[in-house]
Amino acid sequence: MMWSLLVSLALLCFGTVARAAVVTINWNVTWVWASPDGFGRPVIGINNQWPCPKLEVNVGDTLIVNLHNGLGNQTTGIHWHGINQLQTPEMDGPSGVVQCPTPPGSSVQYKFLLDEPGTFWYHSHEKGQYPDGLRGPLIVQDPNDPYKGRYDEEIVLTVSDWYHSQSIPLVQNMLSPANTRFAPPFPDTILLNDKKDVKFNFVKGKTYRVRLINMSAFASAFLWIDSHPLTMIMSDSTYLQTETAYQLHASSAQRYDFLISAIDRDSGNYPILVALDINRDFRNQTLAPAFPHNQTAWLMMDENAPLTRPTNTIDVWRPADDTHFKPLDNLAMIPAYDHLVKLDFRFCLDANGYPRACLNGKPFISQKVPSLYTAATVGENNTNPLVYGQINPIVVKKGDIVQLVINNQEAAGHPFHLHGHSFQVLDRARPYAGDWPGRDVNYNPVPNRRDTVTVWSWSHAVLRFRADNPGVWLFHCHIEWHVEMGLTASFIEGPEQLRGKQFPADHLENCRVGGVPTRGNAAGNELDPLDTTGMLTISPTGYTGATWIPPPANTVTTTPGNSTSSLARRRAASRVQRRDAVFENS
Ligand SMILES: *[C@@H]1O[C@H](CO)[C@@H](O)[C@H](O)[C@H]1NC(C)=O
Ligand SMILES: *[C@@H]1O[C@H](CO)[C@@H](O)[C@H](O)[C@H]1NC(C)=O
Ligand SMILES: *[C@@H]1O[C@H](CO)[C@@H](O)[C@H](O)[C@H]1NC(C)=O
Ligand SMILES: *[C@@H]1O[C@H](CO)[C@@H](O)[C@H](O)[C@H]1NC(C)=O
Ligand SMILES: *[C@@H]1O[C@H](CO)[C@@H](O)[C@H](O)[C@H]1NC(C)=O
Ligand SMILES: *[C@@H]1O[C@H](CO)[C@@H](O)[C@H](O)[C@H]1NC(C)=O
Ligand SMILES: *[C@@H]1O[C@H](CO)[C@@H](O)[C@H](O)[C@H]1NC(C)=O
Fold it and tell me: Lowest-confidence range among 96-100, 122-126, 142-146, 254-258?
């Protein structure tokens, strides 16, 4: 395959020498038939293959991904999870936020710097699409790895829940007034490295670095390896001071790197147990028997030896608390903050009686103009949250220190992810601790940093980060189904720096083909950005997901980036209305 060839060439040329390379990859996103657990279904793969490829690059490299949408019937777009996208917020991926959806038959180029080493992943960020398979590991190697020499080899272990049904009907069933319990779709099974039976060949006495990536759409996972303690070295992309853990709990989107030394007293085979945590309340550590989603992988040291089951099954999981891990650099808590952002999360019903997820009383509703395009085109009004519509916008000045408090006012834990940053986890209170008390006390003086944190049921977390990366960055629950319910806020970071920002021609062309306006406020009003007419304030009831609905032929002829004349503005407005009509009637 083209991509692996180029990557190997890059590795061949530069080896582990810290010299920056440009790695170019050509990906065609296509439907593929696959049956990872014996149940066949169409999945979304890359270059007619599934599982999707593992990307491996070096820190300092620039990655160019030429993505072609070969799906025929769905739009697409990719988010590079955990990558900071310094100075390239338009390459972050979320459709409707920093780019337009990529229509079938069209292409989009992503180009960005890998400024940090670590274990990352990529996934579709287009309308609940990634549970259909479009996700994979992205490993950024570090030639100056502080733990170099402490391990002999490395392996990637992905954990994912898996559904037999496609995402669109799953979300359609969820977003229905009949779903009075706000239930997300429950997975049919769990996959490890996108398979059912995974065996890792270990050599007695050798030490391995395991890069664990949770690619779930819903469930968190517990992990335990028989007789082998885990030496933690990284969480998300933050190096840790080594610490021994016996069990881990990884929520969707989180990553852990740890070392395990294959014991050398025998050449046995040891089970690696992974169990989905689908309990609503983490206080109840008993696995729900109705969802027998545990899976055993094997640490193999002798293929001829029997696979022995664990002597004692895990009845109660007691995973290590990731907020107690210490960053290797000992970076202290940022001492003060300029901006307090408090988000209360609860489920809610909209005016149509549909189940949604609300932050401070409102669900995120995708608008007509991608928010980064709004920030670039409304001039000085881009510091006014009003122009962005109901995307739960939070405007912060470049350089400000933000303290972000999440109050989880619901009965289940939720993993919250921030794009464009790692944040310090000052406090992540125990389940049922209630809301943040409003006082800055008992914070961890040397907090762990992550890009995804689990906030327990009826509890809260306090995060801090420096808003030093101008862009529009989503902050959302990484349970994909809850994103579709609206569990998202948007940081408009450094709006002054975003004024007049230019976008690549291929990105603009995709907007034109899709009939998406690229200038003006959330509703496409450019002459008067404070005119909120046409903004979406109630989520549409007819969910179509990423289904491709071509705009009427006569509406795609205007040149993108040139709707300043009133004629063009009127055209853009009518185009937008027609898009809504298509959306709501379907
Ligand atoms: C992408 O894959 C599809 C399906 O195999 C194929 O029809 C199309 O020609 C491919 N496009 C590109 C640009 O490779
Ligand atoms: C993966 O994330 C899901 C969703 O948060 C979680 O339920 C599951 O336990 C996680 N799995 C692992 C192995 O961490
Ligand atoms: C804990 O979960 C188990 C499995 O779902 C259930 O049987 C049990 O009643 C729960 N216990 C409590 C105290 O909620
Ligand atoms: C895995 O699931 C099976 C079936 O529900 C259950 O009997 C077993 O105890 C579980 N194993 C663990 C380690 O939880
Ligand atoms: C915002 O837009 C309005 C309407 O176009 C304009 O009158 C006003 O001067 C703008 N405000 C700023 C701060 O640019
Ligand atoms: C698109 O095509 C795939 C593969 O043929 C199919 O499974 C899917 O249901 C189609 N429709 C949509 C809306 O995705
Ligand atoms: C923008 O529109 C104006 C007025 O219709 C036209 O004169 C101009 O050439 C257009 N510019 C571009 C870049 O299309």
Answer: 254-258
Q: For residue 515, what is the DSSP state?
A: T
Decide: 74 in ligand 6 pocket, CB within 6 A: yes
Q: Which residues contact 446 (CB under 8 A, 6 or more apart)?
A: 326, 327, 330, 331, 332, 333
What whole-number distance in Å separates Cα of residue 386 and Cα of residue 382?
9
Residue among 28, 43, 46 to mutate when testing ligand 1 (max atoms within 8 A of CB): 28
- The CATH T-level fold of domain 152-327 is Immunoglobulin-like (2.60.40)
As a whole number of angstroms, the distance between CA 291 and CA 188 comes to 9
Integer CA distances (angstroms), 61 to 24, 88, 112, 316, 458, in order: 10, 14, 9, 43, 42
The winner for highest mean pLDDT among 74-88, 265-279, 468-482 is 74-88
Tell me, in angstroms, the distance from the centre of ligand 2 to residue 287's CA: 13
Q: What's the CA gap between 83 and 325, in Å, rounded?
A: 21
Q: What is the third-level CATH fold of 339-584?
A: Immunoglobulin-like (2.60.40)
Residue of 163, 186, 254, 276 to mutate, ligand 2, most atoms within 8 A of C-beta: 276
Q: Is the CB of 28 under 6 A from ligand 1?
A: yes
SS3 387: helix
Q: In 187-278, where do the E strands start and end?
A: 189-192, 199-201, 207-214, 220-225, 230-235, 238-245, 247-250, 255-261, 269-277
Does ligand 5 come within 6 angstroms of the Cβ of 379? yes
On the question of a cis peptide bond just before residue 319, with omega within 30 degrees of 0, the verdict is no
How far lies 211's CA from each of 120, 254, 286, 287, 302, in Å?
A: 9, 11, 26, 25, 23
CB 474 within 8 A of CB 85: no
Pocket of ligand 3 (CB under 6 A): 279, 284, 286, 288
Q: Which ligand is nearest to the CA of 567?
A: 7
Give the residue, by CA position, lying nearest to ligand 3 atom 1.
284
This model's pTM is above 0.70: yes
Return the bridge partners of 250, or none: 221
Cα of 410 vs centre of ligand 2, distance in Å, is: 18
Closest ligand 1 atom to Cα of 26: 14
CA of 286 to the centre of ligand 3 (A): 6
CA dist 52 and 49 (Å) reads 7
Ligand nearest to the CA of 566: 7
Q: What is the C-alpha separation between 465 and 219, in angstroms, rounded?
A: 27
Burial 510-533 (b: 16+ CB within 10 A, else e): bbbbbbbbbbbbbbbbbeebeebe
| CA quadruple 439, 441, 447, 452: dihedral sign | negative
Residues lining ligand 7, Cβ inside 6 A: 559, 562, 565
Domain with CATH 2.60.40.420 in the chain: 152-327, 339-584
Residue (of 35, 41, 83) closest to 62 by Cα position: 83
Query: What is the model's pLDDT at position 483?
Result: 84
Assess whether the C-beta atom of 158 lies below 6 angstroms from ligand 2: no
Q: Smallest Cα–Cα separation from 55: which of 158, 113, 140?
A: 140
| 63-106 confidence digits (pLDDT tens) | 999 999 999 999 999 999 999 999 999 999 999 999 999 999 99
